Amino acid sequence: MLELRGVSKFFDGLPAVKQLDFAVRHGEIVGIIGPNGAGKTTMIGLISGSLPLSSGQIRYRGLDISRLPPHRRAYLGIARTFQVTQPFKGLSVRENVMIGALFGRRGLKQAAAREAADAVLERVGLAAKAHFRADQLTVADRKRLELARALALEPELLLLDEVMAGLTPTEMEQAIALIRAIHASGVTVLVIEHVMQAIMGLSQRIMVLHQGTKIAEGPPEQVLADQRVIEAYLGERYAREQQSRLGAARPVPQKEGKEEQG
Ligand SMILES: Nc1ncnc2c1ncn2[C@@H]1O[C@H](COP(=O)(O)OP(=O)(O)OP(=O)(O)O)[C@@H](O)[C@H]1O
User: Fold this and answer.
1) pTM score, two decimals?
2) Which residue puts its alpha carbon closest to atom 18 of ligand 1?
3) Does 185 contact ligand 1 (Cβ within 6 A)?
4) Measured from the CB, is residue 45 less than 6 Å from ligand 1?
């Protein structure tokens, strides 16, 4: 469904993403992890079109989308959320979501867009706050709105950038259930998340970025046991904890003298 070939992005000559090859199959749910500054958000920007590529190619359903503007990619079915939520602050929650329905793929008229927005708000648990102004929302509700705005585009590929950051454990459970339901409805999902328990439980496959480069890719239990991932991101103790949560049979290799993180 999605293929990145030799994709790079430089900011002022410094690489944020370097020669990245990565592909996602239709119907997958793939997690992207890596330390701060690894290039995860940049990668989402390159796929959604909010950032231009420095080099390489991105293909979506066989089409070269590398130079298409974001709205054209949205018409093709690619929607994203922003790590720092980006609502139209002066508009109501419903109006924010209606924009996706009005200007999205189906280009709905006002009444139909309102109906579509209300259905999405119901789905993300924001129906009771449809009339609130976006800037009156709590952090958790802003995250829900961010997701609702993306869902209003009726995406085939949904790119989620840290939608669980700042949520309480209960809110996180709800978010995980919602992402699972979205995936089960046929949407292919790419999730960036630092909350390991969430991403390990959700993802069929994980890709690990470090300094703009892919250092590992595979099923969660394989990635948790990968020494490069442990050194670059997880730390020994954390990897062991997560692995025992997953019930993986393979032990994480121990390394003496390594400072434990996480
Ligand atoms: N607009 C920009 N201008 C200049 N440098 C940028 C810009 N956006 C990102 N960078 C740099 O690119 C690198 C990758 O950043 P990015 O935000 O993609 O990392 P990340 O993996 O998403 O990190 P985090 O987990 O903290 O969100 C960092 O060194 C960052 O400072």
Assistant:
1) 0.89
2) 39
3) no
4) no
In a domain, 114, yes or no: yes
Nearest 5°: phi and psi at 175? -65, -40
- In a domain, residue 97? The reply is yes
Residue 11 CB–ligand 1 contact under 6 Å: yes
| pLDDT tens string 13-64 | 999 999 999 999 999 999 999 999 999 999 999 999 999 999 999 999 999 9
145 and 87 Cβ atoms separated by less than 8 Å: yes
CA of 39 to the centre of ligand 1 (A): 6
Taking CA atoms only, the protein residue closest to ligand 1 atom 25 is 36
The identity of residue 24, as a single letter, is V
| Domain-embedded: residue 99 | yes
Ligand 1 contact via 191 beta carbon (within 6 Å)? no
What distance in Å separates the CA atoms of residue 160 and residue 146, rounded to the nearest whole number?
9
Cβ(210) – ligand 1 distance below 6 Å: no
- pLDDT per residue as tens digits for the range 116-125: 999 999 999 9
Q: Domain of 92?
A: 87-154
CB 202 within 8 A of CB 173: no
